[in-house]
Amino acid sequence: MTVALPAHAVATGNVTLFPKVNTIVANAEAFDALSEDLQLALRQAAGATRDWAVANNRDDPDLAEEYCAGGGHIALASDAEIEALRDATEVVYAALERDPATVEMIDRIRQLAVDAGPAVGVEACAPDDSNGPRPTAEFSGDFPDGVYRVEISVERLTSAAIDRPTALQHAGVWTMTFSGGELMVRDVNASTGKVSEGEGVYCLEDGRVVLGLLGSPPHCGDFWSGAWTLEGDQLRFTDVESGHGFDLLIETLFGGQPWTKVE
């Protein structure tokens, strides 16, 4: 999702560094233990999911246009830079191609690229900073501003039916700073120690706090929203709703446990 990309980063429009695929893998013994009807249902569900994903997948130019409209920055690598990248990866291909099965798969992938033909190009773009700093949302209300923190474990996320890879990616110490309509979200990942930060805005609508990130146009509503209660230094968000999908993850991250006020 382009709204999840940091607006201050630079994305490459004509270099894809790695693919992202989802694969269903079944243990042969466990699969054979299923009835024929269950095996058929699983195969049909997998096929239907694949077909839905192909039909509903947005193309790169469409996603790039959305990212650029939200203040993103896309650069295009030159022919010389692309050739240098290919040269740098030759040693990796040489190692992979020592295995006959792997070299066969590489050849098939290369042929798929030839059969598919050239992809529709993505245009470069840069954020327009000519008008000065980005505006923030107008804010008025009685939301309890401050710095709030919570530690979210892998176990808490997986117990909420979130898959383990996603849980590992999001578990850690989260900090949210609310200050007069301006928002800062900071995450220190539990497994890698990597720090992620994002700026945003928030406002109040019908008794709910509504959050937006500056990776998209600076308005409330594209991140998540929820009601809230404050008891002592414990801020709890309830009835959390995502503004861009991934409802279960958003609900668990931000509404799964109280946030402690630290400043």
Number of domains: 2
Q: Could you estimate the helical fraction of the residues in percent?
A: 25-40%
Radius of gyration: 23 Å
**Secondary-structure element sequence?**
EHHHEHHEHHEEEEEEHE
What's the pLDDT, averaged over the residues? 84
Question: Helix and strand layout, with pairings?
Answer:
Elements: E1 10-12, H1 28-32, H2 36-56, H3 60-69, E2 73-75, H4 79-96, H5 100-116, E3 146-152, H6 154-159, H7 164-170, E4 172-179, E5 182-189, E6 195-205, E7 208-213, E8 224-231, E9 234-242, H8 247-255, E10 259-261
Parallel strand pairs: 1-2
Antiparallel strand pairs: 3-4, 3-10, 4-5, 5-6, 6-7, 7-8, 8-9, 9-10
Keywords:
8 helices, Lipocalin, 8-stranded antiparallel barrel, 263 residues
Describe this structure in words.
This protein is of the alpha+beta class and 263 residues long. It folds into two domains: 2-116, no CATH class; 146-261, Beta Barrel (Lipocalin). It contains eight helices and ten strands. The chain is globular. It starts with 9 loop residues before the first strand and ends with a strand.
Brief rundown of the structure:
The protein is 35% helix and 25% strand. With 263 residues, it is of the alpha+beta class.
